[in-house]
Amino acid sequence: MPTNFLSEEQRRRFGHFTEDPDEGQLAGSFLLDQTARRRAMAARGARNRIGWAVQLGTVRYLGTFLNNPTDRRANSGRHTGRARKTSSGHWD
Q: Cα(65)–Cα(85) distance, rounded to whole angstroms?
């Protein structure tokens, strides 16, 4: 993605979590609507489902994928996981 129009500071921050998102940012980016949940549930296995959901939230929050998907903030994964669990506490 071209970044030559960004300032040096914006380039440094682009595509990285520079601080932990607050609850409002987490809800806005990592909470899955019905369509996103259906797409996540199409992935095989719970790990792929949570991975898909965290990647979607990351793209929503940062505007791009991380170079290394494991470089996410811990609270983003926990928030997505809490939002995705069913009432029984399991990933269907």
A: 24
Closest listed residue to residue 79, CA positions, set 18, 45, 32, 42: 32
The amino acid sitting at 66 is L
Residue 90, Ramachandran bin (φ over 0: left; ψ between -120 and 50: alpha; else beta) = beta
Q: What's the pLDDT tens digit per position in 28-86? A: 888 888 999 998 899 888 888 888 888 898 889 888 887 777 765 555 555 555 555 54
**DSSP characters for 8-38?**
HHHHHHTTS--S---HHHHHHHH---HHHHH
**CA-CA distance, 27 to 92, in Å (whole number)?**
22
| pLDDT at residue number 10 | 81
